[in-house]
Amino acid sequence: MIYEILVGGETGGKESGKPHRLELRKSAAGWECRLDGRVVRVDAVIPRRDVLSLLVDGHSYEIKREQTATDLHMWVGSARFAVQLRDPRSLRSRQLAGGEEKGPRKILAPMPGRVVRILVAEGSEVEAGQGIVVVEAMKMQNEIKSPKKGVVKKISAIPGATVNPGDVLAIVE
Amino acid sequence: MRVLRACREMGIAAVVVYSDVDRAALHVRKSDEAYPIGPAPAAESYLRIDKILDVAKRSGAEAIHPGYGFLSENAKFAQACADAGVKFIGPTPHSMNLMGSKTSARQQMEKAGVPFVPGTSRGLASPEEGEEVAERIGYPVMLKAAAGGGGKGMRLVHTRRELRSALESAQSEAQRSFGDSEVYIEKAIVNPRHIEMQVLADEHGNTVWLGERECSIQRRHQKVLEEAPSPIVDPDMRRRMGEVAVKVAQAANYTNAGTVEFLVDQQKNFYFLEMNTRLQVEHPVTELTTGLDLVHLQIRIAAGEKLPFAQSDIAIRGHAIECRIYAEDPDNNYFPSPGKITVLLQPSGPGIRRDSGMYEGWNVPMDYDPLLAKLIGYATDREQAILRLDRALYEYFVAGIKTNISLFRRILRDGDFRAGRLDTGYLDRLLAKSKAGSGSDMPSGEKEELEAIAAIAAGMFAVLDPASPGPKNGNSGGEPAIVPSRWKQNGRSEGLR
Q1: Which helix (H) or strand (E) holds B110?
Q2: Residue B450 at interface with chain A, using a CB cutoff of 8 Å
């Protein structure tokens, strides 16, 4: 298996993250990992869902996986890393990778809450990182931002409506 | 849950009430009988005295333990219980009324010779009176609402020039928040500590003190971490505080468990602040250092039993520290973070007590206080308690929602905390010191290594764990845990109001 993996900073992963190339091959005594050309042997066990026990050269790590509607994080001990994973051979991945720049991108609600207001109109041009919709959860307002530069194709969020994590708020193309 | 456990231990059947969003809450799951009392907003459920007493009548409950929040300090509720012939596990409505108003409490306590922060014991009649008192006791002064709490109607005033407008705004805020504009004035204690004394009184005139709790680590007037004993209180000071606390309780004819709060200045002078007429959230640290079960004792006192021990039988032993685990986002200024708990790994082992209401798959309701659990470390001494708690926090893992677990690891490793240099401004200073995450002080070599581990782990998860989300991009449907309908229903009813 070959993966392209972006590992971002610990705090929310706003930084773009460092790219890594990871090759995994099953061997007799576990897994042979080639990370950016460096070869490491690891033993991996999943004792329960979302928990991974890794032995690397005798060092033991317990890694926890946290998935939300919009993010994937790896916790190594008490350090948290935002991670994006791609399989370059998968067709969908290639399309999605392309979609980073071209193609439509959905903007999803990251938390349960209520739509407070819409900051842009359908058809308007937006920059990457520009606020699109404001969602309020537990009396706190969060600006949900555009992941890319483009045109707002559709706004499905309705002011006053409640949303659940993963609900589509808008589409930017 | 705390009360439920005590009931089970004592062979008492427990009836609980719940609002619509709490049907799946742990206290309902573990009860003997449970009855719904209305929709999510507390004003329509947990604060409805009539509905709660109706459940008591229907179920034949003999007594009601009011817990720590909601109606636990409400004298009207205690009175309504008495009128309905149901024993309220707590003090009498008369004691609660007396302590409920800060000015009436102050007048009563001054008569009993309890030390106070210099100031007025009744509301200010005019701005001129305020200026005159402030001159006499010296600036800075604090204006406080008589009916207040939670920082509402409170103003810190540094100079005479600010006093008049501060008084006006405090009065109007007090009127809006409590329906009572009475505001009094006190000397402001610079960098005070907040230390409180647990008392216990039976209905036969016996009152004892059970040692202090250091509660200086607060934010937005909310306690975050408490410990017993306080790092600065020695046996002599403890005895003096305890004796004052007993005097306070006796002056109010107090019965059952209560807490007398003190402000302590830098010279270790202590001043009576107020009395909390209920069991406190942080009672476990007192239980661990005295070896007593306060909820058992509350129930036995309410049943008319005498205290089974005298003051001289009580010994303070060891050290206990409690962390209040809240559903709060450390990366977003500790704002509440609702949602579904997807993964929960809980600590255990030597010297660890965990009082928790959470479980994997539970939706943290957005309607109430975001307290999820209390993690308490205890040991022979403070240093060992810190080490145990730090270890347990390392074992604690909650995914799906954000929690303040990382904050406690910062506090426990902080030099000022280790040295016991605490006051009520401590936590704000700690948070201002470094806004960055816990790993920013990590050596870069170590960070790179952990990053490599994170990358390998992401790949291994993708290969080995069937629940793997696969390539990450908002487009692929299916993998996000869609929050079940309870949220939705609640959200809808909220939206309709």
Answers
A1: helix B102-111
A2: yes
